Please model this.
Amino acid sequence: MAIMKFAPEALKNLFSKPVTTSYPAKPAEYPERSRGHIDIVIDECISCGMCVRVCPSSALSVDREKGTWTINRYDCIVCGFCAEKCPKKCLSVNPGYQTPGGEKMEAVYTKSPEVLAAEAAKRKEAAEKAAAAAKAKAEAAAKAKAEAEAQAAGATPVAEAAKTE
Ligand code: SF4
Ligand code: SF4
Model:
């Protein structure tokens, strides 16, 4: 009479919705706080490299000149450390896993042309300021040296005269 034990369960399942989903036809639903993958709002990234330094699996790289942020999702263990340490809070851990693939592909995110142009202009301005400051410093040093030499040259005859007296 073991069948009688399963009858209620069998009847219940007969008239209820299936517990399985029709993935991949229907997209999977992930728990809200599941650690699926890292996302970036690339235009807010300042290419500081903090995420690269703290990543325990060396899954990240940043190219400041090209304005790119690259992640190897096969190396990422979704620890969330990069998102925690990012000073701009432009990284986040979100539900949803990467699409399976046969190759270890890197995902490259590039800043928009407007942001890249603004950053290049800022770098140019900073370089010009630094060059002007260095030039002013060198000129001041040269002037001080010339003054010291002139002073020494003016003092020498007096000193020599004092010696001969
Ligand atoms: S989640 Fe962890 S392993 Fe993945 S990129 Fe960020 S720091 Fe690296
Ligand atoms: S820590 Fe944040 S701001 Fe800095 S490089 Fe990484 S993503 Fe960009």
